Amino acid sequence: xxxxxxxxxxxxxxxPTSPRFAPTVRRLVGAxxxxxxxxxxxxxxxxxIVIMAAVGFAGLLVTIMRSDEVRxxxxxxxxxxxxxx
Length: 85
Prior knowledge:
mainly alpha
């Protein structure tokens, strides 16, 4: 059987009925707020993702540039640019 006193029934929802729990509740709410706002390391993770994408793109370019077809096209382009007349 549960007995409800007038003070407990009148307390707003979410607030402790005993003043001794108020500091604990405030600490928990404060900690939850800090955790919700914590984004430490997010910029570092973004930089790491961008660097990995750049390394992948550079590897792809190296592979393409080593092919004989691309090498021939670039050689012809350089020769035509350096040719006078």
